[in-house]
């Protein structure tokens, strides 16, 4: 056979629409069809011989090509192609079974206990600070039994405290903790839990599902869907934004349950000011500056304390205990600390006495449904959630105010707040362990990561649902794939709640899994050796970030201890040292400006780079000065300079980052780690550095930012200035 003729006919076979349709009917989507064809073509073209029946078909096709009466047609290759495809994709043999397992079109049927009763659904809709959750909790407290499901440990702990203070015995259940109201560890009739931990088998009189709008969350939305469809309670009280009313009503229509909507209005007025703060000199007691990166938190807190003011600091990766202590410090009328610097972590879970919310920026890093990182303006929902923290009902401030740090941002913030909140259109779903086990039965040689991929590719959902992002799950599955574990244990390890941007925590999970696979218990002594406990108070920001990672490791141990009690036996001891570590971190946060100064004076490579928990606004493929370490964090200098690169303006309001605050930062950090690194690499000389500093100072005096021409130099012509620029 002529190889050229065979290749031409194989390519003709691939392009035939009828063949692609037949492939789809046999489970080969476009991606699998392409991969199967490449393998099939390679098999024919590179094999020294093929089976006799395939050879006859190829011969008939090649000899009959171009003749009026064809001996053969390229479509005759399909049975051989399909046979080859099934060899490289074994799931094709059991495609019907796999499709049935991954059919997600009727989630209500997954919860027969809930479908066996007629539930009453009450939607408490309203903005932040409207009393919607309060009314739901009152019904929870008056019931014979109840369950509260919240998005945060802090919220679950707050309801746990309120219930027991009201003489309603209530247990606390989170992923890392079980606290019983009764001394004999007998289960109380009321439970406050994080939403992932709610039981769909236990009957209750009343259930409260808080922050229902998070049902659309790309990563955690499945937990709200599971609670809404599966809780066995006579009354389900749902609290959240009015944007979720239509979706909840539609979901309940599929279960045959009606929704009663109760609308609430904000209890105190909220005013958007007509002027921006513009300078930290204009701060007043009760102000809260909201930032969206740790770098800004550190920079602004130092500038505030340089003005002789005390400030509290709250951000996402702080332990819950430290957040509560910082909130208590800020709320205490007798404490000199009257200013709060925080990320959007204050949006829920903390009761704060804030007079005025000040957005340092209205640009925030986000992760979309595909798991891709994006930079964009905050949404109306996010802006309302954060701004609504000002003027909390019952606090010393009878009304709330909101503004921005920079004048340009204020116009856009007003536009954002005027826009209607986009309705919640779909609820999240996630494959269950049972579904993955059934997949593994049919595909015993597939890795867990591949099983998840195949499940998602075959899954069918209707318009009310979407499959949640599983990148974190797959990341952990790939990381521990080489460790011999049974499927159920492997699945549990892959659902562990950790931040994959923290190498120390990821490495610890890997060590946990390896020792677990050897059936060796992970003892308290082993954990102390691994974390080098006891630990001293941090001397710089890098050490503070490491302590936060160690706290996450202790959380991880406690989370696993409730799933594998015999292999993680020392939960009580670990909880004790975690509380001590929380106290150490609190000391570090209280002295955060000293840590920042220590980090800058050391100017060691990597010291400034570890401070960002979010991917920074200066991320760029074109500007080598905005280099990053393996944590994805950038130095403050790179953050400040790179925002001037026009190609990286993914949102129109990034100009705000070339503000006076940034100029002060440049001035103070001019000789930081970026400068040292450039000097070491020969990209910058001492003379060039002195010239840059001189130009920065000149431009600062002229009210301009960035590297410009030396306009105030009488000896410098326009042409010279242009060349220097």
TrEMBL record:
GO BP annotations, alphabetical order: mitochondrial RNA 3'-end processing
Cofactor(s), by name: Mg(2+); Mn(2+)
Q: What is its main location?
A: mitochondrion
Every copy of the Helicase C-terminal domain together lies at 272-437
Signal peptide from the UniProt entry? none
Catalyzed chemical reaction(s): ATP + H2O = ADP + phosphate + H(+)
Catalytic class of the enzyme: hydrolase
Q: Check the record and name the SMART domains matching this protein.
A: HELICc
Enumerate the PANTHER family for this protein.
Answer: ATP-DEPENDENT RNA AND DNA HELICASE, ATP-DEPENDENT RNA HELICASE SUPV3L1, MITOCHONDRIAL-RELATED
User: Which family, according to the similarity comment?
Assistant: Belongs to the helicase family.
Q: What is this protein called?
A: ATP-dependent RNA helicase SUPV3L1, mitochondrial
Q: Which organism is it from?
A: Eurystomus gularis
């Amino acid at each position: 056979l002529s190889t050229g003729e065979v290749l031409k006919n194989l390519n003709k076979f691939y392009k035939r629409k009828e063949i692609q349709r037949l492939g789809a009917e046999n489970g080969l989507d476009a991606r699998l069809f392409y991969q199967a064809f490449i393998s099939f073509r390679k098999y024919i073209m590179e094999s020294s011989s093929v089976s006799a029946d395939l050879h006859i078909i190829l011969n008939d096709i090649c000899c009959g090509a171009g003749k009026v009466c064809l001996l053969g047609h390229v479509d005759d290759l399909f049975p051989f192609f399909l046979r080859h495809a099934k060899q490289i994709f074994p799931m094709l043999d059991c495609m019907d079974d796999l499709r049935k397992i991954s059919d997600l079109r009727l989630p209500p049927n997954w919860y027969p206990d809930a479908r066996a009763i007629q539930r009453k659904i009450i939607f408490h809709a309203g903005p932040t600070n409207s009393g919607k959750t309060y009314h739901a909790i009152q019904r929870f407290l008056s019931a014979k039994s109840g369950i509260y499901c919240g998005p945060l440990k802090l919220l679950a702990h707050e309801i746990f405290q309120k219930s027991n203070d009201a003489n309603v015995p209530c247990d606390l259940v989170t992923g890392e903790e079980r606290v019983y109201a009764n001394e004999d560890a007998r289960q109380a009739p009321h439970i406050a839990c994080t939403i992932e931990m709610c039981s769909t088998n236990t009957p209750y009189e009343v259930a409260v599902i808080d922050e229902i709008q998070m049902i659309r969350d790309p990563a955690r939305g499945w937990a709200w869907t599971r609670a809404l469809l599966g809780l066995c309670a006579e009354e389900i009280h749902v609290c959240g934004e009015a944007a979720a009313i239509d979706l909840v009503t539609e979901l309940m229509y599929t279960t045959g349950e009606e929704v009663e909507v109760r609308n609430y209005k904000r209890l105190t007025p909220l005013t958007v000011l007509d002027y921006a703060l513009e300078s930290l000199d204009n701060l007043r007691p009760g102000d809260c500056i909201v930032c969206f990166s740790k770098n800004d938190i550190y920079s602004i807190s130092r500038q505030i304390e340089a003005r002789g003011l005390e400030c509290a600091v709250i951000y996402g990766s702080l332990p819950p205990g430290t957040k509560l202590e910082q909130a208590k410090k800020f709320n205490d009328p007798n404490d000199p600390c009257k200013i709060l610097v925080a990320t959007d972590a204050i949006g829920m879970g903390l009761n704060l006495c804030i007079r005025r919310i000040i957005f340092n920026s209205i640009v925030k890093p986000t992760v979309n449904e595909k798991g891709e990182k994006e930079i964009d303006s905050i949404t109306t929902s996010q802006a309302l959630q954060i701004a609504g923290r000002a003027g909390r009902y019952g606090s010393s401030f009878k009304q709330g105010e909101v503004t921005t740090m920079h004048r340009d941002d204020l116009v856009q913030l007003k536009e954002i707040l005027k826009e209607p909140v986009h309705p919640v259109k779909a609820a999240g779903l996630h494959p269950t362990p049972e579904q993955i086990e059934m997949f593994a039965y049919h595909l015993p040689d597939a890795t867990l990561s591949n099983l998840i991929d195949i499940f998602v590719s075959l899954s069918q959902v209707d318009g009310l649902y979407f499959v949640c992002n599983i990148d974190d799950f797959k990341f952990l599955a790939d990381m521990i794939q080489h460790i011999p574990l049974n499927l159920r244990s492997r699945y549990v390890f892959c659902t562990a709640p950790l931040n994959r941007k923290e190498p120390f925590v990821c490495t610890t999970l890997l060590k946990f899994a390896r020792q677990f696979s050897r059936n060796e218990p992970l003892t308290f002594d082993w954990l102390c050796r691994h974390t080098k406990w006891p630990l001293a108070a941090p001397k710089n920001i890098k050490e503070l970030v490491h302590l936060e990672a160690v706290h996450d490791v202790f959380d991880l141990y406690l989370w696993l201890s409730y799933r594998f009690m015999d292999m993680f036996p020392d939960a009580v001891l670990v909880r004790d040292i975690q509380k001590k570590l929380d106290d150490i971190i609190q000391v570090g946060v209280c002295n955060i400006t000293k840590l920042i100064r220590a980090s800058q004076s050391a100017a060691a490579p990597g010291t400034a780079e570890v401070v960002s928990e979010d991917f920074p606004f200066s991320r760029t493929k074109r500007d080598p000065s905005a280099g990053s370490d393996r944590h994805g964090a950038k130095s403050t200098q790179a953050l400040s300079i790179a925002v001037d690169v026009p190609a990286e303006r993914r949102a129109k309001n990034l100009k705000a980052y070339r503000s006076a605050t940034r100029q002060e930062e440049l001035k103070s950090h001019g000789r930081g780690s970026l400068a040292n690194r450039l000097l070491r690499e020969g990209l910058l000389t001492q003379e060039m550095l002195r010239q840059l500093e001189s130009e920065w100072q000149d431009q600062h005096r002229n009210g301009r930012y960035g590297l410009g021409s030396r306009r105030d130099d009488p000896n410098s012509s326009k042409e010279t200035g242009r060349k220097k620029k």
